């Protein structure tokens, strides 16, 4: 998979996805609306936060290892300084698809984490947001257009 679109299509074809970086308090973290978007679209989605028991009314997992069965892909919405640890856990578990939330600013993207993915055969989407692709609202359509126009959607 080389192109942004191919990686997005492959990621969104997964049926079970973990979302890291969700918050116990709705509306305070970018991971929460992404979690809800996947959930409303019919995915088997798992919130991950090491300090939470419940997120958005659902059981929360402290790490990827605690999810059974293993997920197919991981949406990374953590602070960029935590992204490397997330992708290392993905490698350990054999999870081969990740997406760094990254639209404006650095988002969850970390060059160290992206390089780790490249070196370890993990297909990483380094920019964008799934909300630009799953029944996007007007705002996410605009963000997608702008990022694409300026060449910010990385392979």
Q: What is the number of independent domains?
A: 1
- Gap between N and C termini: 9 Å
Number of strands: 7
What series of H and E elements makes up the topology?
HEHEEEEHEHEH
Q: Can you tell me the residue ranges where pLDDT is under 50 for at least 5 consecutive residues?
A: none
Give, in spatial order, the strands making up the sheet with the most strands.
Answer: 2-1-5-6-7
CATH topology: Rossmann fold
Mass-distribution shape: globular
Average residue pLDDT: 92
Query: What share of residues is helical?
Result: 25-40%
For the sheet with most strands, the description reads: 5 strands, parallel
Strand content: 15-25%
**Helix vs. strand class:** alpha/beta
Give a written overview of the molecule.
The structure is a single chain. This protein is an alpha/beta fold. It has one domain (4-149): Rossmann fold. The protein is 35% helix and 16% strand. The protein contains five helices and seven strands, in the order αβαββββαβαβα. It has helices at 4-12, 31-40, 80-93, 111-119, 138-149; strands at residues 16-20, 44-48, 54-55, 58-59, 73-76, 97-100, 123-125. The strands form two sheets. Strands 2-1-5-6-7 form a five-stranded parallel β-sheet, sandwiched between helices. α2 links the parallel β1 (16-20) and β2 (44-48). α3 runs parallel beside α4 (111-119).
